[in-house]
Design goal:
alpha/beta; Alpha/beta knot; 2 domains; seven-stranded parallel beta sheet; 13 strands
Protein backbone atom coordinates (compact mmCIF):
# COMPACT_ATOMS: atom_id res chain seq x y z
CA UNK A 1 0.00 0.00 0.00
CA UNK A 2 1.11 3.56 -0.63
CA UNK A 3 1.83 5.33 2.63
CA UNK A 4 -0.50 8.24 3.07
CA UNK A 5 0.45 11.87 2.91
CA UNK A 6 -0.15 13.71 6.16
CA UNK A 7 -2.74 16.40 6.74
CA UNK A 8 -3.07 18.63 9.78
CA UNK A 9 -6.83 18.97 9.63
CA UNK A 10 -8.49 15.61 8.99
CA UNK A 11 -12.17 15.23 9.78
CA UNK A 12 -14.41 12.19 9.66
CA UNK A 13 -17.89 13.57 8.92
CA UNK A 14 -21.02 11.48 8.99
CA UNK A 15 -21.69 9.55 5.80
CA UNK A 16 -23.57 11.94 3.55
CA UNK A 17 -23.36 13.52 0.14
CA UNK A 18 -24.92 16.80 1.26
CA UNK A 19 -22.25 19.53 1.11
CA UNK A 20 -23.77 21.37 4.08
CA UNK A 21 -23.13 18.36 6.32
CA UNK A 22 -19.50 17.58 5.46
CA UNK A 23 -16.58 18.61 7.60
CA UNK A 24 -16.34 22.23 8.68
CA UNK A 25 -19.18 23.97 6.84
CA UNK A 26 -17.57 24.98 3.53
CA UNK A 27 -17.79 28.60 2.39
CA UNK A 28 -20.34 28.00 -0.35
CA UNK A 29 -21.53 30.45 -2.98
CA UNK A 30 -24.14 30.41 -5.69
CA UNK A 31 -23.16 31.09 -9.27
CA UNK A 32 -25.05 33.83 -11.10
CA UNK A 33 -28.58 32.48 -11.32
CA UNK A 34 -29.79 34.68 -14.19
CA UNK A 35 -33.17 33.30 -15.14
CA UNK A 36 -32.69 30.10 -13.19
CA UNK A 37 -32.04 26.60 -14.49
CA UNK A 38 -34.73 24.25 -15.77
CA UNK A 39 -34.38 20.68 -14.50
CA UNK A 40 -36.61 18.03 -16.02
CA UNK A 41 -37.39 14.35 -15.74
CA UNK A 42 -38.79 12.49 -12.75
CA UNK A 43 -35.51 11.51 -11.04
CA UNK A 44 -33.86 14.92 -11.44
CA UNK A 45 -36.88 16.86 -10.20
CA UNK A 46 -37.70 14.58 -7.24
CA UNK A 47 -34.05 14.72 -6.15
CA UNK A 48 -34.12 18.52 -6.38
CA UNK A 49 -37.30 18.68 -4.28
CA UNK A 50 -35.64 16.51 -1.62
CA UNK A 51 -32.50 18.67 -1.46
CA UNK A 52 -32.76 21.37 1.25
CA UNK A 53 -29.96 23.29 -0.48
CA UNK A 54 -31.97 23.64 -3.69
CA UNK A 55 -34.17 26.70 -4.16
CA UNK A 56 -37.18 25.97 -6.33
CA UNK A 57 -38.59 28.88 -8.31
CA UNK A 58 -41.30 27.13 -10.27
CA UNK A 59 -42.62 23.57 -10.48
CA UNK A 60 -44.69 22.47 -13.46
CA UNK A 61 -46.22 19.08 -14.21
CA UNK A 62 -48.95 17.35 -16.14
CA UNK A 63 -51.85 16.00 -14.08
CA UNK A 64 -50.49 12.46 -14.48
CA UNK A 65 -46.90 13.35 -13.57
CA UNK A 66 -48.01 15.42 -10.57
CA UNK A 67 -49.22 12.23 -8.88
CA UNK A 68 -45.64 10.89 -8.86
CA UNK A 69 -44.25 13.89 -6.94
CA UNK A 70 -43.87 13.81 -3.16
CA UNK A 71 -46.50 15.66 -1.13
CA UNK A 72 -45.77 18.75 0.90
CA UNK A 73 -43.50 20.42 -1.64
CA UNK A 74 -43.92 23.70 -3.52
CA UNK A 75 -47.14 24.31 -5.38
CA UNK A 76 -47.41 22.55 -8.71
CA UNK A 77 -48.41 24.57 -11.77
CA UNK A 78 -50.51 22.29 -13.99
CA UNK A 79 -49.44 22.34 -17.63
CA UNK A 80 -49.90 20.12 -20.65
CA UNK A 81 -46.96 18.31 -22.23
CA UNK A 82 -46.82 20.74 -25.20
CA UNK A 83 -46.75 23.66 -22.75
CA UNK A 84 -43.83 22.10 -20.87
CA UNK A 85 -42.10 21.39 -24.20
CA UNK A 86 -42.10 25.11 -24.92
CA UNK A 87 -40.32 25.90 -21.65
CA UNK A 88 -37.44 23.50 -22.28
CA UNK A 89 -34.75 22.92 -24.92
CA UNK A 90 -35.88 21.11 -28.04
CA UNK A 91 -35.96 17.36 -27.56
CA UNK A 92 -35.87 17.46 -23.75
CA UNK A 93 -37.34 14.21 -22.38
CA UNK A 94 -39.17 15.67 -19.40
CA UNK A 95 -41.66 12.88 -18.54
CA UNK A 96 -44.27 15.53 -17.82
CA UNK A 97 -42.43 17.34 -15.02
CA UNK A 98 -39.93 20.22 -14.79
CA UNK A 99 -38.65 22.64 -12.17
CA UNK A 100 -37.03 26.03 -12.55
CA UNK A 101 -34.36 26.24 -9.86
CA UNK A 102 -31.49 28.32 -8.53
CA UNK A 103 -28.02 26.82 -9.09
CA UNK A 104 -26.70 24.94 -6.08
CA UNK A 105 -24.21 26.58 -3.74
CA UNK A 106 -20.77 25.26 -4.54
CA UNK A 107 -17.61 24.21 -2.72
CA UNK A 108 -14.22 25.74 -3.28
CA UNK A 109 -11.26 23.42 -3.84
CA UNK A 110 -9.99 24.15 -0.33
CA UNK A 111 -13.21 22.76 1.16
CA UNK A 112 -12.42 19.26 -0.09
CA UNK A 113 -9.49 18.75 2.25
CA UNK A 114 -11.51 19.95 5.23
CA UNK A 115 -14.36 17.56 4.41
CA UNK A 116 -12.26 14.51 3.49
CA UNK A 117 -11.81 11.58 5.88
CA UNK A 118 -8.56 9.61 5.86
CA UNK A 119 -9.92 7.35 3.09
CA UNK A 120 -11.48 9.44 0.31
CA UNK A 121 -11.77 9.57 -3.46
CA UNK A 122 -12.20 12.71 -5.56
CA UNK A 123 -12.78 12.65 -9.32
CA UNK A 124 -11.04 15.37 -11.37
CA UNK A 125 -12.07 15.96 -14.99
CA UNK A 126 -9.61 17.58 -17.40
CA UNK A 127 -11.74 19.35 -20.03
CA UNK A 128 -14.54 16.78 -20.24
CA UNK A 129 -17.16 18.98 -21.91
CA UNK A 130 -20.07 16.67 -22.78
CA UNK A 131 -22.87 17.17 -20.19
CA UNK A 132 -24.04 13.58 -20.69
CA UNK A 133 -20.59 12.29 -19.72
CA UNK A 134 -20.25 14.64 -16.75
CA UNK A 135 -23.74 13.71 -15.57
CA UNK A 136 -22.97 10.01 -15.83
CA UNK A 137 -19.70 10.53 -13.92
CA UNK A 138 -21.57 12.36 -11.16
CA UNK A 139 -23.91 9.37 -10.92
CA UNK A 140 -21.00 6.89 -10.69
CA UNK A 141 -19.19 9.10 -8.18
CA UNK A 142 -22.27 9.09 -5.96
CA UNK A 143 -22.77 5.35 -6.41
CA UNK A 144 -19.20 4.50 -5.35
CA UNK A 145 -18.96 6.98 -2.48
CA UNK A 146 -16.67 9.64 -3.96
CA UNK A 147 -16.42 12.91 -2.08
CA UNK A 148 -16.65 15.38 -4.99
CA UNK A 149 -16.13 15.89 -8.72
CA UNK A 150 -13.76 18.70 -9.73
CA UNK A 151 -13.95 20.43 -13.14
CA UNK A 152 -12.26 23.47 -14.72
CA UNK A 153 -14.54 26.48 -14.88
CA UNK A 154 -13.96 27.26 -18.56
CA UNK A 155 -13.98 23.79 -20.09
CA UNK A 156 -16.85 21.94 -18.43
CA UNK A 157 -20.61 22.07 -18.89
CA UNK A 158 -22.74 24.38 -16.79
CA UNK A 159 -25.41 23.05 -14.46
CA UNK A 160 -28.21 22.33 -16.94
CA UNK A 161 -31.22 20.10 -17.32
CA UNK A 162 -29.24 17.82 -19.64
CA UNK A 163 -26.49 17.35 -17.06
CA UNK A 164 -28.98 16.85 -14.23
CA UNK A 165 -31.02 14.29 -16.16
CA UNK A 166 -27.87 12.35 -17.11
CA UNK A 167 -26.88 12.37 -13.44
CA UNK A 168 -30.29 10.90 -12.52
CA UNK A 169 -30.50 12.81 -9.24
CA UNK A 170 -26.78 12.68 -8.36
CA UNK A 171 -26.31 16.40 -9.07
CA UNK A 172 -28.20 17.06 -5.83
CA UNK A 173 -25.94 14.76 -3.80
CA UNK A 174 -22.48 15.05 -5.34
CA UNK A 175 -20.60 18.36 -5.03
CA UNK A 176 -19.47 19.66 -8.44
CA UNK A 177 -16.45 21.82 -7.64
CA UNK A 178 -15.41 24.37 -10.28
CA UNK A 179 -11.86 25.69 -10.31
CA UNK A 180 -10.17 28.43 -12.32
CA UNK A 181 -6.81 26.65 -12.64
CA UNK A 182 -6.80 22.85 -12.68
CA UNK A 183 -3.05 22.49 -12.11
CA UNK A 184 -3.28 24.74 -9.06
CA UNK A 185 -6.27 22.73 -7.81
CA UNK A 186 -4.22 19.52 -8.03
CA UNK A 187 -1.45 21.13 -5.99
CA UNK A 188 -3.98 22.11 -3.32
CA UNK A 189 -5.27 18.54 -3.22
CA UNK A 190 -1.69 17.28 -2.84
CA UNK A 191 -1.14 19.66 0.06
CA UNK A 192 -4.31 18.21 1.63
CA UNK A 193 -2.86 14.68 1.48
CA UNK A 194 -4.28 13.39 -1.81
CA UNK A 195 -2.34 11.15 -4.18
CA UNK A 196 -2.99 12.36 -7.75
CA UNK A 197 -3.56 9.43 -10.13
CA UNK A 198 -4.05 10.22 -13.81
CA UNK A 199 -5.76 7.67 -16.03
CA UNK A 200 -3.77 7.16 -19.25
CA UNK A 201 -3.88 4.30 -21.75
CA UNK A 202 -0.07 4.14 -22.04
CA UNK A 203 0.59 4.13 -18.28
CA UNK A 204 3.13 1.55 -17.06
CA UNK A 205 0.89 0.04 -14.36
CA UNK A 206 -2.79 -0.68 -13.93
CA UNK A 207 -4.85 1.08 -11.30
CA UNK A 208 -4.99 -2.15 -9.27
CA UNK A 209 -1.21 -2.62 -9.47
CA UNK A 210 -0.60 0.91 -8.16
CA UNK A 211 -2.23 -0.14 -4.85
CA UNK A 212 -3.34 3.37 -3.98
CA UNK A 213 -4.90 3.99 -0.60
CA UNK A 214 -5.83 6.86 1.68
CA UNK A 215 -6.87 10.03 -0.12
CA UNK A 216 -6.89 9.62 -3.92
CA UNK A 217 -7.73 12.11 -6.67
CA UNK A 218 -8.56 10.22 -9.87
CA UNK A 219 -7.92 12.42 -12.93
CA UNK A 220 -9.56 11.68 -16.29
CA UNK A 221 -9.07 13.53 -19.56
CA UNK A 222 -11.32 14.18 -22.51
CA UNK A 223 -11.98 11.35 -24.94
CA UNK A 224 -9.43 11.25 -27.73
CA UNK A 225 -7.13 13.93 -26.29
CA UNK A 226 -6.73 12.40 -22.84
CA UNK A 227 -4.88 14.28 -20.13
CA UNK A 228 -3.18 17.52 -21.10
CA UNK A 229 0.60 17.73 -20.68
CA UNK A 230 0.43 20.16 -17.76
CA UNK A 231 -2.11 17.95 -15.99
CA UNK A 232 0.14 14.91 -16.42
CA UNK A 233 3.09 16.69 -14.85
CA UNK A 234 1.01 17.29 -11.71
CA UNK A 235 0.11 13.61 -11.31
CA UNK A 236 1.94 11.46 -8.76
CA UNK A 237 1.05 8.33 -10.74
CA UNK A 238 -0.14 7.48 -14.23
CA UNK A 239 -2.33 4.38 -14.24
CA UNK A 240 -4.43 2.49 -16.76
CA UNK A 241 -7.34 0.11 -16.90
CA UNK A 242 -6.56 -3.40 -18.18
CA UNK A 243 -8.78 -3.34 -21.26
CA UNK A 244 -8.30 -5.79 -24.12
CA UNK A 245 -6.99 -4.88 -27.53
CA UNK A 246 -10.48 -5.21 -29.00
CA UNK A 247 -11.09 -1.50 -28.36
CA UNK A 248 -8.72 1.46 -28.20
CA UNK A 249 -10.36 3.10 -25.20
CA UNK A 250 -13.50 3.38 -23.11
CA UNK A 251 -15.94 6.26 -23.05
CA UNK A 252 -14.75 8.59 -20.27
CA UNK A 253 -17.87 8.02 -18.17
CA UNK A 254 -17.46 4.23 -18.47
CA UNK A 255 -13.78 4.51 -17.58
CA UNK A 256 -14.67 6.58 -14.51
CA UNK A 257 -17.18 3.98 -13.33
CA UNK A 258 -14.71 1.11 -13.74
CA UNK A 259 -11.90 3.03 -12.03
CA UNK A 260 -14.12 4.08 -9.10
CA UNK A 261 -15.24 0.48 -8.65
CA UNK A 262 -11.61 -0.66 -8.66
CA UNK A 263 -10.68 1.89 -5.98
CA UNK A 264 -13.62 0.79 -3.82
CA UNK A 265 -12.86 -2.90 -4.40
CA UNK A 266 -9.23 -2.57 -3.33
CA UNK A 267 -9.77 -0.14 -0.45
CA UNK A 268 -8.43 -1.42 2.90
Amino acid sequence: MKSKKTNQDVHSPAKTNNPSAKGDAPARHRRDSGGGVWLYGTHAVIAALANPERRIRRLVATAEAARTLPPGGPGIEPLTRPEIDRLLPAGAVHQGVAAQVEPLPGWGIEDIGRAAPAQAVVVVLDQVTDPHNVGAILRSAAAFGALAVVVPDRHAPEETGTLAKSASGALERMPLVRVTNLARALEILKADGFWIAGLAAEAPVTLAEAKLSGRVALVLGAEGEGLRRLTRTHCDHLVRLPISGAVESLNVSNAAAVALYELVRTAP
